[in-house]
Design brief:
two-stranded antiparallel ribbon; alpha/beta; 9 strands; binds iron/sulfur cluster; 15 helices
């Protein structure tokens, strides 16, 4: 049981008791992640109820202490003099994070790629916050972090390791597919055999090129809102992606996990699905390996950072220019609502979802194309 939940319950108990309500028991009701929906919702199986009486008894004294501290703060004219700490992000991200670090240089140690917060805080407490100090201290050994600092400080262009990129590209082959899923994560499972919070793929976009120099082709799938999409998407994948072809995904573990789950659910399609999964290559790899870096990426290798860094002025690649759906969160929110929309709105929403997902794989094609262009000799090695 997480301490933070107990603290919440203790606070509620304290408030209610001080309002005159007699509390006879304290429980935490949480979702049972192992519950599997069998077609009829079993609330006893979906929720688990934990008696936290003993924990709350121990925590209630803290509530009083905290309220006294809050009173003192509220009475004071000055802002609290509070250093940044782990508590700013754990267990929850504090909404004042940007405000509290407003006096730090930009970028600062907190913008560094792949450094645990604990480590960043150590530098910060030692007074090493800006990139010049980080470079001068000589403690940083991570090549990618050093490159991030160097490119930010010296306004450098693009770093390219041609051999690394060439090696990655040599692992790809035609016909070459570019795959991206959209998923939703219902807390209360909607479909037979699924669990709370399970990622349910309902859409994919698939660009593909049959052979070198061949035209770029596109296929897509979007389930009917309100219906179980799993069998339909599994069948569509097997129809659209032949066995033994090279498929790319960006951050492939997500696509691989969804395909594996489909294979477990639909054993008659498992051989084909697992073959697709086993042939997926990760387009993120050359970026994560540091073979390509550009200052505009700001230390992030997500496609939403890589794409505008490589193609800063291409309106066709700008997610902001899409209508209605601009990111995965919007897609997962809109899709289940479509079933309740009037027909015209449904049409529009489906169109927007298709355009969004299509841009995801088109972006992958463009990123891959840039890597090919680099290797084919248009860019010098180095920076
Ligand atoms: S970010 Fe939040 S938790 Fe961190 S110091 Fe500021 S107010 Fe406190």
């Amino acid at each position: 049981m997480k301490a933070v939940y107990v603290a919440d319950v203790a606070y509620q108990k304290y408030v209610l008791e001080h309002c005159g309500v007699r509390i006879t028991g304290t429980y935490i009701v949480s979702i049972n992640n192992n519950y599997i929906y069998d077609g009829e919702l079993d609330l006893k199986g979906l929720f688990q109820i934990t008696d936290v009486f003993g924990f709350v008894k121990n925590a209630i004294g803290e509530v009083e202490n905290n309220l006294l501290k809050e009173d003192t703060l509220l009475e004071s004219e000055a802002e609290p003099d509070q250093e940044l700490g782990l508590y700013c992000k754990v267990p929850y991200g504090c909404p004042y994070w940007d405000y509290c670090k407003k006096n730090l240089p930009r970028p600062s140690v907190f913008d560094l790629y792949r450094m645990p917060l604990k480590k960043k805080l150590e530098y910060y407490r030692e007074g090493i916050s800006d990139y010049k100090q980080l470079k001068a201290c000589g403690k940083l050994k991570n090549e990618k972090q050093l490159r991030q600092i160097e490119f930010a400080l010296e306004d450098k262009g693009t770093y390219v390791n041609i051999d690394g990129i060439r090696e990655f590209l040599s692992t790809l082959s035609y016909p070459l597919y570019f795959l991206d899923f959209e998923t939703m994560q219902p807390v209360i499972p909607l479909f037979l055999g699924t669990k709370p919070y399970q990622q349910i793929p309902f859409q994919y976009s698939l660009h593909y090129i049959e052979s070198a120099g061949a035209p770029l082709l596109h296929k897509e799938f979007l389930a009917e809102s309100g219906e179980n999409p799993l069998r339909a998407i599994a069948e569509a994948l097997c129809r659209d992606i032949p066995m033994n072809v090279c498929v790319t995904a960006y951050n492939k573990s997500f696509e691989c996990s969804r395909i594996k789950e489909l294979a477990v659910m639909f054993t008659d399609l498992a051989e084909h699905l697992l073959n697709i999964r086993d042939n997926i290559k990760d387009l993120l790899d050359p970026f994560q390996a540091g073979h390509y870096y550009n200052r505009a990426m700001g230390g992030s290798f997500s496609i939403k950072s890589v794409l505008p860094a490589i193609f800063p002025n291409d309106p066709k690649l700008n997610y902001h220019n899409l209508e209605g759906v601009h990111n995965g969160s919007e897609a997962m929110t809109i899709f289940p609502r479509i079933k309740d929309m009037p027909a015209e709105e449904q049409k529009k929403a489906r169109h927007n979802l298709l355009k969004y997902c299509e841009l995801d794989t088109y972006a992958m094609v463009k990123v891959w194309g840039e890597l090919v262009r680099i290797v084919e000799g248009d860019t010098e090695d180095g920076d």
